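Changelog-linked ticket: cobalt (II) ion example.
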Amino acid sequence: MKQAQQLLKFIDDSPTPWHAVATTVAMLEAHGFRALCEKQVWQLTSGERYYTIRDQSSIIAFVAGNRAPSESGYRIIGAHTDSPGLRLKPNPEQRRGSYLRLGVEVYGSPLLATFADRDLSLAGRVSVRTDNGEQPFESRLLRFDESIVRLPNLAIHLNRGVNKEGLKFNAQEELPLIFSQPTPKGGSFKALVAERLQVDEADILAWELATYDTQPGTFFGVDQAFISNSQLDNLASCHAALLALIETVERPADITQMIAFFDHEEVGSCSTKGADGSFLNDVLKRLSSAFEDNQQGHHQAVANSYMLSADMAHAWHPNFSSQHEPEHQPIINSGPVIKINTSQRYTTDAHTEALFVAICEDEKIPFQKFVNRSDLACGSTIGPISAARTGIRSLDVGNPMWAMHSIRESAGAVDHDYMIRAMSAFLRY
Ligand code: CO
């Protein structure tokens, strides 16, 4: 339960992928991890702890093993920092009658209806001009703590069919968020951003801002056995991996242990910092060149490695039982779910599945297996993309949850502890 409490705090501190990386860095630095800049030469020492960030929202951290990667390989836990939602347009202000609305783009595949009637706010990063000649602008994190935007529902009297047909939003016309009742003097959104960052409005050059829910995470259920928050997919996996890595650093290991968190999973991973970009391969090659004097070292290391692609899984929902495969019904608080798909939407194969089952059995951690209904399309993860790009054997695992891609998801408090223990054992495997 203590870890689940820490998870809720981690998410509350991380309303966006940029904040998630900042929160991760704070925890890593508190445990002796040192920053590496991709622009500089890396001098690495066995047994030391490092991290490197790409463009503020993807991060790789590792403990360099006591033996060369070519001999012992890497153990990598991958996850993603982003969650589906609404992102502010560059010129967001839209006046309609007496109201100023903020226009949004849809990021990934959120359950849009869940964004209605919530105490929403905005957070993200803003690029601000500086006086520094070498670096003419800098990126600043921004978070409005109070709720500043809202998507009010339409009353049932004006939408009589809603309970039968579902709540639908046209993304262009019906999603703009209520922001203000502007006065003749102005009160623009950009002016508000400038005021919060204490900069001139003219110095704001660009932004990436996301809606987030101001309601903190909570426990629920009679034994407080369940948790609810935004972004459980996939900050729960990031947090579990982070705690697993931090837990293992005190024990010197031969193997190089690594966590790799990527942005842009929810939109397909194709970017410089997404899992389909070069980030992980670049880091692995630099590690090889630091520790190997042999050109083949990198390829040997890859062949000796395993990756655990961690992303949340669909728990069986008792109210919608028919949507699940009857013999594969992941239950909340019953342990990590091994995800299997013959079309390779998940990377798990008999070899990597056996590896994880053996770990769970040795550590006395319960586990479950999932396949989709054969007549439903299967989701995917960063697993297949990373495995294809790196050539590293992989499996897909995640904790069971309800309401994936809702702004208010739910999962099990006990499962988080199981996952941390399983990941910790995987890093030592
Ligand atoms: Co996910």
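Closing comment: Example verified and attached. The chain has a mean pLDDT of 95. The two ends are 26 Å apart (CA to CA).
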